[in-house]
Amino acid sequence: NYFCEVTCTSFLTVFKIHFFHLFFLLDCEFHGGRGFVYCLPGSSKIFSVYCDQETSLGGWLLIQQRMDGSLNFNRTWQDYKRGFGSLNDKGEGEFWLGNDYLHLLTQRGSILRVELEDWDGKGAYAEYHFRVGSEEEGYALQVSSYTGTAGDALVEGSVEEGSEYTSHNGMQFSTFDRDADQWEENCAEVYGGGWWYNNCQAANLNGIYYAGGSYDPRNNSPYEIENGVVWVPFRGADYSLRVVRMKIKPLVTQ
Ligand SMILES: *[C@@H]1O[C@H](CO)[C@@H](O)[C@H](O)[C@H]1NC(C)=O
Ligand SMILES: [Ca+2]
């Protein structure tokens, strides 16, 4: 794994780079390897991305990570739009890249890789074709072509509760201060994070971080609900995962 730093000198330069080559290869030889590095419009300063060079041929850009519950993910539309949190130089930390970036980086198609780890160290993954709409489109989620070992929480959703209520595909993004879900109440408010809620969820990777794994929703306050860091087909709704991360790479590589 390498940590690459890109100096983005001006908004214009960055925008051109972005517009004509959604991604480009930057020489990370300095750090002992090579990786995809993304330059994002609006980053007029040093923008650091974490380049994972080890998982399935490398070239992944980390877009979300939970690992110790140190960061509050129950945040506003503006926070999710711009991103929050940070990583250290080992790629450790909790963060959300930002929905504007997700839209820009996925508009030509990308692969999403979700990695999950429970409190016994058991891991699982899920991969999808992945696109996030613009803010005008409510950052709507488009996912398809599931492969993996974790189960298909994003398209199929929860088999028990029914796909039509729990699939995240096609859903707009919701935060507690902007409810775009399919429930008469506010999923984001009670499930504790910004997400593509339906009525409500089979995956809640930005949910409330409960240490230890299994939890009894009756003890959760202020909502007695299964609002942990959840991937239903992997460990069920009443199990909050220890580590979750989301990574993307372009669908068509050069
Ligand atoms: C999330 O934050 C909102 C606003 O502060 C609050 O009303 C809500 O109860 C919080 N949700 C959870 C699950 O803590
Ligand atoms: Ca609602």
Written account of the structure:
- It contains six helices and 13 strands.
- It is an alpha+beta fold.
- The strands form three sheets. Strands 1, 4, 5, 6, 7, 8, 9, 10 and 13 form a nine-stranded antiparallel sheet that branches. Strands 2-3 form a two-stranded antiparallel sheet.
- The longest helix has 10 residues.
- The structure holds 2-acetamido-2-deoxy-beta-D-glucopyranose and calcium ion.
- The site of calcium ion has 6 residues, from loops.
Strand and helix layout:
Layout lengths: L1 E6 L3 H10 L3 E3 L8 E3 L8 E7 L7 E7 L10 H6 L1 E2 L9 E2 L2 H8 L3 E8 L5 E10 L8 E8 L14 H4 L20 H5 L11 E2 L25 E2 H4 L7 E8 L4
Antiparallel strand pairs: 1-4, 2-3, 4-5, 5-7, 5-13, 6-7, 8-9, 8-13, 9-10, 11-12
This protein binds 2-acetamido-2-deoxy-beta-D-glucopyranose and calcium ion.
The site of 2-acetamido-2-deoxy-beta-D-glucopyranose has 9 residues, from helix 5.
Mean pLDDT score, rounded?
81
Tell how many strands the DSSP assignment holds.
Answer: 13
Order of helices and strands: EHEEEEHEEHEEEHHEEHE
Q: State Rg.
A: 18 Å
- For the report, how would you describe the main beta sheet? 9 strands, antiparallel
Quaternary:
single chain
Helix amount, in percent? Answer: 10-25%
- Tell me the number of helical segments per DSSP (H or I, 4 or more residues long): 6
Hey, roughly how much beta strand do the residues contain?
25-35%
Low-confidence stretches: 1-48
What coarse outline follows from CA principal-axis ratios? globular
Structural class: alpha+beta
Bound molecule types: 2-acetamido-2-deoxy-beta-D-glucopyranose, calcium ion
CA distance, first residue to last residue: 21 Å
Main location: secreted
Pfam families: Fibrinogen_C
Signal peptide: 1-35
GO molecular function, one term: metal ion binding
